[in-house]
Specification:
Blueprint (H helix, E strand, L loop, with lengths): L3 H39 L7 E4 L5 E5 L12 H15 L7 H23 L12
Antiparallel strand pairs: 1-2
Helix pairs in contact: 1-2, 2-3
């Protein structure tokens, strides 16, 4: 027969483990949902979801790598399109983080460079009309 003290200890340990697992599941789901919004909005520019955990295995954060565009002087429209995708991806979750705002602002700066370049060089990206 199991002593009442040992039975209490086993039940208490089980309850602690269940509570820990509930916390892990809740945190994982919250983080995964946030990162999934980034990934879906990022399309082909976004990488896989990474969930970071602390030493106890509890999820504490996550990220989705995204390909930040650079100014393509031969195709500023592509730079603008890709920057818009990065901005949409960064702001996709209902609760953007400070890092999400930083990424969006960086993409806005690149978009602005591309727009300025396009305005200063209207001939870039125009197709020649060889039919005459």
């Amino acid at each position: 027969m199991i002593s009442p003290v040992k039975m209490f200890a086993n039940n208490y340990s089980f309850a602690q483990n269940q509570q820990r697992q509930d916390i892990i599941n809740q945190r994982y789901n919250e983080i995964y949902s946030h990162e999934l919004a980034h990934q879906r909005a990022g399309g082909s520019l976004a990488g896989g979801i990474v969930i970071e955990r602390d030493a106890n295995g509890i999820p504490i954060g996550g990220h989705v790598p995204i390909k930040m565009p650079s100014l393509d002087k031969n195709n500023p429209d592509k730079t603008i399109k890709d920057a818009n995708t990065v901005i949409s991806s960064a702001m996709a979750p209902s609760d953007p983080s400070d890092q999400d705002y930083r990424v969006a602002n960086q993409a806005r700066a690149i978009k602005s460079q591309a727009q300025n370049y396009k305005n200063a060089h209207p001939e870039v990206g125009k197709k020649l009309n060889l039919v005459g």
